[in-house]
From TrEMBL:
CDD domains: REC_YesN-like. It comes from Paenibacillus silagei. Residues 432-530 form the HTH araC/xylS-type domain. Residues 3-120 form the Response regulatory domain. Keywords: Cytoplasm, DNA-binding, Phosphoprotein, Transcription, Transcription regulation, Two-component regulatory system. This is Two-component system response regulator YesN. The modification 4-aspartylphosphate is found at residue 55. It is found in: Cytoplasm. It holds the Pfam family GGDEF_2.
Amino acid sequence: MYNMIIVDDEERARVGIKTLIDWHSHGIHIAGEARDGLEALELLDSYAVDIMLTDIRMPQMDGLELIKVVSEKYPSVKSVIMSGYDDFAYAQQAIRSGVSNYLLKPSRRQEILSTVLAITEQIQSEKLEITTLEHLRQGFRESLPLLKEKTLSQLILTESPAYSRLLANLKMNQLVFPYLLYGIILLRIDNFQLLHEKYMHEDTELLKYGLKNICEESLPEAVLCVAFEHQDDIVLILNMDELPDQEELSGYIRIIQENIASFLKFTVSAGIGSIDKNIEHLRHSFVEACQALNTTNYTGIAKIVEYSGEFDAESSQSSYPLHEEQEVLKAVRGGSSGDIADKLTLFNVALQPETVSRDQVIKSSFALFFALYKLCIENNVNVNKVFGQNLTELIHVLSRSSLDNLFQSLLETAQRVSEHLTSKKNSNKLLEAAKSYIGEHFMKDINREIVAREIYITPGYLSLLFKQQLKISFIDYLHKVRIEHACQLFKDPGMRIEDIALQSGYNDTKYFYQVFKKYKGLTPNQFRSNTE
């Protein structure tokens, strides 16, 4: 049974939602009702709530502010907005605040029910995912993989290692290679950055732990498979008695790919090295498997790439498409999403990904990535909001992804930069409009709400503009404009202080004295004396 609360200042709306749908038959319990955000928070403090159905416009605390608080304090609660205000800006703000869905009043009964049931399915899926991760976590804690991983890494990465010592270490971990033939398969998680963004670091490591287990358990008994991690890739050491043909080896990999997709819900691509006698061949096979993935381009996901031995490093070099880069940056400044996508496509085509090495394409893509970073710096855009807090880690994650996903990340990054540049331009225009209105009307009884209404934004956003752009609050700016005007009036010795206060926007002379002293450090009389 899922607990849901209904938040709406109209009793008729609350009663309708509660009574017109047989919630109980769908496994949903109405845990309570609230007239505004504050009452809703009291309910959330008292009950374990799964779903919150809320209006936007309400007294005390509106729906958007409520959702923001709930997403921070009760992150497991799924929020659904129901509002008669068909305003895309509200929908955008709601999505940023953590809303799961957005419905416009009047909503049909079936539409409301379908939306809530879809959310219950999402909750169930998340709970199942948590359970899966917990099982993996338990297995991870109970294992001691460090010595085994280190030894296996030395086996393939070290030039002329001490094989007898390494094999002795593996024997302590109950690992012995009984067969004559050795080879390497290198697995790379497709779209690794999406996995990295979805999960915390520990959970990502748990998934890679699960991936290794699946690989070792998927192959037939006649093939010993030992898996370990190397720079976010998974290295499979194959030990066998008979040499498999290419189709048989590809079949093994497809079984692994299917099991990973089924149990872990992501895909991997594979690079295949050669198979030969003696354990010393492992290092050579590993180099081949790496080259299969790094110097042979592939598009899409779940690909199987065999080392061909025909790669020519010189033929892979291509010049950087500087003209296409400038066209992308121009489109980003212009703010057209379609134009950005078109120019980025031309940039990608110019890289010739079908003929040059994957490594060359990645380097050129990162060059454009840093050109976008530089554009943010030049325009005073907060790079952390565009690229995240850890740029080095982001670059590492992207380098492990497929080219298709790398290009998609470039597109999303370019569009985010464009959105920030456009937002900054709009913010500057709005701020100038606010300053202009204040300059013309400061002598009247104006406040934040009046100015915000005149330039068609919310009072909260107006305050944010002043804080972000001028590093000053709205009221401080208004006082400074008024006080500076008063200082000019003090040049006329015939004017009374009461008249100066009134003409500067202060109906209360006593309050004028207080504000003037705060901003000038002198009383009006002292200031007048100093200017005479």
